[in-house]
Amino acid sequence: AAVAAGRGLRGPLGMAGRRWRSGVGSPERAPRIYTRTGDSGFSSTFTGERRPKGDRIFEALGATDELSSAIGLAGEFSSEKGHTFVDQLHKVQCMLQDVGSNLATPLSSAREAHRKRTSFSEKPILELEQWIDSYSEQLPPLRAFILPSGGRSSAALHFSRAVCRRAERCVVPLVQAGEADPNVAKYLNRLSDYLFVLARYAAMKEGKEEKIYIKPEP
C-alpha cells in the first residue's frame, strides 16, 4: 500500500486516499483492504518512490502509528474516568496524521507541490507547550523518579510517552539527513513531555498513588 496522504496509508494516515474499484455499470462494491502491492517487501512514499519496507522512513511511520494507537488506548481509559483532556488526545492523534504525511514525503525527492501539502508548522508545538504549562502548574513538584503507575489512565499515558520517545528516535535521523521537517522531531519531543505531565495529572485527578523509584538495599 502507498504510505502517504492521499495515497492510502494503513495506520496514522488512514485509508482515505485509496482508489476503490467497482464493476463498470454495477453498484459500487465494498472496498478491499488489501492491494497486494507490498507483497514483495516494498512500499511507496508520497513522492512515488518504491523503498524496502525496512527503510527508516517506514520505521518512523510505523512508530508513529504505534504512538497514535497507544494514545487512543490511553484516551479510552481516560474517557471512562471523565477526564476533560480526552479532546486534546484526539487532537494529538490528528496531528500525528500530519506527522506521518511529512515523514512519508522525503524532501530529497519531493516536489514543491508535495512540500506544500505535507508541511509541518511550529504552531502545534507551541500549543503543546501551553498545555504542559497549564497542567504543570497544578501538580506537586517532583521529588523522586516516578515509575509508570497511578491507575489505568496514567499508566497508559506513561506507555504512550515511552512509545513517543521511540518514535522520536526514529524521526531524528531523517531530520538530520534532511529528509523530514525539523518541526516534526520537535513536536514529538514536546509531546513526550506533555504525555508525562498528563500521566501525573490523571493520577492526581483520580486520587491514585504514583509509585516512586526506591533504590534496593545493597
UniProtKB/TrEMBL annotation:
For this UniProt record, give its keywords in alphabetical order, as a comma-separated list: ATP-binding, Nucleotide-binding, Transferase
In residue numbers, the region (Disordered) covers: 15-50
Picking any one GO molecular function of the record gives:
corrinoid adenosyltransferase activity
| Classification via Gene3D superfamilies | Cobalamin adenosyltransferase-like
Q: What ranges does the record list as Polar residues composition bias?
A: 37-47
- Tell me which residues make up the Cobalamin adenosyltransferase-like domain: 33-202
InterPro entries cross-referenced by the UniProt entry: CblAdoTrfase-like (IPR016030), CblAdoTrfase-like_sf (IPR036451), PduO-typ (IPR029499)
- Job description of the protein: Converts cob(I)alamin to adenosylcobalamin (adenosylcob(III)alamin), a coenzyme for methylmalonyl-CoA mutase, therefore participates in the final step of the vitamin B12 conversion. Generates adenosylcobalamin (AdoCbl) and directly delivers the cofactor to MUT in a transfer that is stimulated by ATP-binding to MMAB and gated by MMAA.
UniProt similarity note? Belongs to the Cob(I)alamin adenosyltransferase family.
Q: How does it assemble?
A: Homotrimer.
The name this protein carries in UniProt is Corrinoid adenosyltransferase MMAB
